[in-house]
DNA sequence: CTGAAAGCGCTTACAG
DNA sequence: CTGAAAGCGCTTACAG
């Protein structure tokens, strides 16, 4: 038998389609016995309301479009999970499209979503011009996560990248590090620029001279972190810490250090940004700035739902939080200052401005076991 | 102005809606000048065909439902990316729903997808009973990835878990390992059972006695890998290698070893399964069994498209591949056999049946630098 | 090649 | 509380 329609149900229940419709939408009271008859008929026939027909008739698609950049990104993945959670229990579902950070691809993804059309739009990052998003926002409730849109400031869920990055750098500076290599994100990313800015501001506040040769640009993916460290070594750069603009590049940097036989954090400290779920399980567990990505996804969904329900936009404040784990340690000099009697042997990198050439030597040498307690 | 409809376009172009419709669907020839007039009018009005109305009229939603388990899973993420890629260029888009490996949640996700209704269904893993999937498959083309469904064997895209796991174990056995700890997946997962089976079969072929106290069950997530290693140590188990049923648990195990100051692979070898994209960047890079997840996603999408287009189901064969990286090494005994003059000092774990108690000692001791070449 | 018309499966004023 | 009817924006035989 073909899929049963509302008409089949109404007929089986001995009521009009209007009445049958009302029991499913709940828009008006229906007498008890008729209600029951409809439910029974629906059950018996295995009736499922056709969402498409319903959308066309009601003018609402019950779909929230989500423009993401990469469906498999560990960073956006958490946001998507949050969105799913935030939509749970509502009658809306999410439909995803990926833009891969390419303006044209984002445009066509957006085009596809609007053509459905969706009842609301959540935009995660990307390079779509502000004007285009403002134009969409005029048609449909829109929330942006991880980017800001001029004129739509209160519909943008963001963290303070400058402050977050500043705090990462401060952590390193307080541990005594002065020569800090920085692996930046692509300068076309606003996040990347802001994080670089936070780093530089901290340096300035600590009266540490900025050293352009300690800054390398990556693309937010692992291999670029590895390359960055390699190029740093190739140019003979000296540093006691590496700060990466995101965790994925920090992973790559970690591998670059490992390849040279450099220990983290004994020889060189490492910090990331994002706190991906796997960052608590790297070797050593990565010190990084946590972004509340899941929470932002939930909030984005709730904000859309609120707007759709005619409620005012909920306000939320998203704080970053430094997760001090085991990839950062005081410089040797700082350790000595703190406990002059510390008997542990100083590694070749223990003076705060290590020579990578000596750190490279593959002579067996003492390995510090992790001392997490020391740094808390 | 409200969103323009086909009727607006037809009117502006001076043709009937039928004709206007034909230029957009391409279902019939339209005279050149009328075609142009319609295109121009559409352009001018900023017309976008309404996908919902189109679906209702044509009886095709142009939506492929994807039942996944966790939208943020690094494993399924790759499959989703493949599906997106495979659908690219077609007029279909994917709509995702997550089941979180819970039968009822999967049912409601499936219910939501079928109620839209979708034109095709791709199912990733999960615990939905075979009969339910068979029932869906009767209504709509269905492809399953990473699980098998009785009666739908040729619509299931799978790898040979038994063989893959066998090959991982063989790799370890050939390196001389005999006491291999195994971190299994949950026994309710078919994949988990098959991988355990492959492991045990290899042991049997090598005449290594199976040792139940070396097997711990996890849940495929990182923390369970950490717990597994801890419980192994707690019970005083002796082993020179750890094999995990997936990469995420291998990451957790890696951390457990690190916490005890145990070196990988010098003291203990470690192997995973899946080859997640970050596994090439762990410390050390993880030896693991690659699953062609992205390719399976592409193939699933293509199979659906083919079926929808009336073409026969394409056949594909998915091979796993052992990625030998740097987390596995020969046992000390095996190294000596291979090059009796190897001058490197033997670690406390070098005899193939190490004592974790001694490996635990936090005395500084020589650290082997990585020797990737040695194992190729 | 083209238009008028029916119809996709619902919802929702409108009139009782 | 309930039914008949119009309509959502398209597609697609059907007849020219």
Summarize it.
2 copies of one chain form a homodimer. Chain A has 376 residues and is an alpha/beta fold.
Describe this structure in words.
Two copies of one chain form a homodimer. Chain A is built from 14 helices and eleven strands. In chain A, helix 5 runs parallel beside helix 12 and helix 8 packs parallel to helix 9. The longest helix of chain A has 16 residues. The C terminus of chain A is likely disordered. At the A-B interface, helix 4, helix 5, strand 2, helix 6 and helix 11 of A face helix 4, helix 5, strand 2, helix 6 and helix 11 of B. Chain A binds a DNA duplex (16 and 16 nucleotides) through helix 2 and helix 4. Chains A, B: It comes from Deinococcus navajonensis. Chains A, B: GO terms for molecular function: DNA binding.
Number of strands of chain A: 11
Low-confidence stretches of chain A: 345-376
Strand order of the largest sheet of chain A: 2-1-3-4-5
What is the H-and-E element order of chain A? HHHHEHEHEHEEHEHEHEHEEHEHH
CATH class of the largest domain in chain A: Alpha Beta
**Strand residue percentage of chain A:** 5-15%
Q: What is the distance, rounded to the nearest whole angstrom, between the alpha carbons of the first and last residues of chain A?
A: 68 Å
Let me know the CATH homologous superfamily of the largest domain in chain A.
Response regulator
């Amino acid at each position: 038998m073909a899929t049963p329609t509302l008409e089949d149900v109404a007929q089986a229940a001995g009521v009009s389609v209007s009445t049958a419709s009302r029991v499913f939408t709940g828009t008006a009271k229906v007498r008890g016995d008729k209600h029951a008859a409809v439910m029974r008929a629906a059950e018996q026939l295995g009736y499922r309301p056709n969402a498409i027909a319903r959308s066309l008739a009601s003018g609402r698609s019950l779909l929230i479009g989500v423009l993401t950049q990469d469906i498999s990104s560990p960073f956006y993945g958490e946001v998507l999970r949050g969105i799913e959670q935030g939509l749970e229990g509502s009658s809306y579902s999410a439909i995803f499209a990926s833009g891969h950070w390419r303006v044209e691809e984002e445009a066509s993804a957006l085009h596809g979503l609007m053509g459905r059309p969706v009842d609301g739009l959540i935009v995660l990052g990307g390079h779509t011009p502000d004007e285009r998003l403002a134009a969409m926002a005029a048609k449909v409730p829109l929330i942006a996560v991880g980017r800001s849109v001029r004129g739509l400031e209160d519909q943008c869920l963001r963290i303070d990248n400058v402050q977050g990055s500043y705090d990462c750098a401060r952590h390193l500076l307080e541990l005594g590090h002065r020569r800090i290599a920085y692996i930046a994100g692509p300068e076309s990313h606003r996040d990347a620029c802001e994080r670089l800015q936070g780093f530089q501001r901290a340096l300035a506040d600590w009266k540490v001279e900025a050293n352009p040769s300690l800054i390398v640009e990556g693309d937010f993916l692992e291999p670029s972190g590895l390359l960055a460290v390699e190029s740093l070594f190739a140019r003979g750069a000296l540093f006691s810490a590496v700060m990466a603009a995101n965790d994925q590049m920090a992973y790559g940097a970690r591998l670059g250090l490992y390849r040279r036989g450099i220990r983290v954090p004994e020889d060189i400290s490492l910090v990331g940004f994002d706190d991906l779920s796997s960052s608590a399980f790297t070797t050593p567990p990565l010190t990084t700035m946590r972004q509340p990505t899941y929470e932002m996804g939930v909030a984005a969904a709730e904000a859309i739902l609120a707007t759709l329900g005619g409620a005012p936009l909920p306000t939320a404040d998203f704080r970053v939080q430094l997760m001090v784990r085991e990839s950062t340690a005081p410089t040797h000099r700082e350790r000595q200052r703190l406990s002059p009697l510390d008997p542990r042997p100083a590694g070749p990198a223990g003076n705060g401005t290590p020579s990578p050439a000596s750190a490279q030597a593959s002579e067996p040498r003492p390995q510090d076991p992790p001392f997490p307690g020391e740094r808390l």
